[in-house]
Amino acid sequence: MNRMGSDNNSKIINNNDDDDDNGKNSKIQRDSRAFLNKALLIIGVLTVFALGLGMMHQEPKSPARSQHSVVNNNMNNEVSHRENNNNNNNNNNNNNNNKDTTKVIQALDNNSGGKSFGDIDTELAATVNSLDGQVRARKKIPDVIMETDEEGLKLTTALQKATLKLLEHRYGANTRHTKFRIVVDVMYPASVVIQDPDSESHKGQFTIEMAPHDIIPCSVFYFMEMVRTFKSMGFHRNAGHVLQASSQSGATAGHKSMPFQEYSPLHPHAKYSTGYAGRPSGPEWYVSIQDNTNNHGPGSQQKKNPYEADSNFGNIVEGVESGVFAKIHSVPADGFLPKEHCTQMYKMTIMVNSINDPNQWTEWKPLSVIKD
């Protein structure tokens, strides 16, 4: 009986073992199916993701590429546009200058209380002429030294301010231009050309840059007016320190000179400066071919007034290196010259720069008819 019980127990144990094995196998199968399902799910997700990436890379007309094409086209169009503009710039310069001149006149007229450009110019010139006469009258009084006389200083200061206003209005000083230049075309006499038979031309050219107009406005304005109303000029004196020129113009009619000896130490009589000859100075003028600070500066050429100097108005900026003045000076005569030895100035041109482009020079044109 005990053996039978033992056998039965063994069977029960064996049956339990079989059940355990079956349970284990079932769990393994469940786990395997779960793992397989997860794997399939992951593979599916990855496949979809990969297909999506593939479609993105294979898109033939992506926004990025389309935008790149547009940018390139725009750049090409812009380059073409710039080239067309550059080709048209020269053709448009004259039209633009005319339009700018019209705009300037309109702006001035709009800010003038209804007065025209010409009317304002006439009024400003009348003020200058009135003060000019008062300064001359004061200067004629015996023993009056204009540089120290209180009334003389008031009058000359008023004249300078009025002249600067006229310079601004008539010539555009400070309003449209910052500097002025005078281009001078000359013709050498036969006596000079003979000495240089290999010369390419019997003509030459030099350029004067006017002094700062806010320092010596009367001197600058006087020469600008001489050029504007130019008739003829010529170098008629060949000295060791200057080349002196006569002047025929509307501004110098009656041999009109400067109203007073306007001078500033900020613009001395350095080599190749330009000044007015005589006391009172002008209308004859000269080019200093040496430093004439002592010869023509304060206290020179007279003993009465230690402050008085020749008025001056500019500096030579072109023509020295090209030999123009060496040629004029080489004339075979000294002192005041006979006509056959004079170098003639047959053309003088006022050149102006622009406030927006100070290094660009163009010929000055009056904005309106000037009543002389």
Automatic annotation (TrEMBL):
Keywords: Membrane, Transmembrane, Transmembrane helix. Residues 1-15, 85-98 have a biased composition (Low complexity). The chain crosses the membrane at residues 35-56. Residues 1-26, 77-100, 283-309 are annotated as: Disordered. Residues 289-304 have a biased composition (Polar residues). The keyword Membrane applies. This is PPIase cyclophilin-type domain-containing protein. It comes from Fragilariopsis cylindrus CCMP1102.
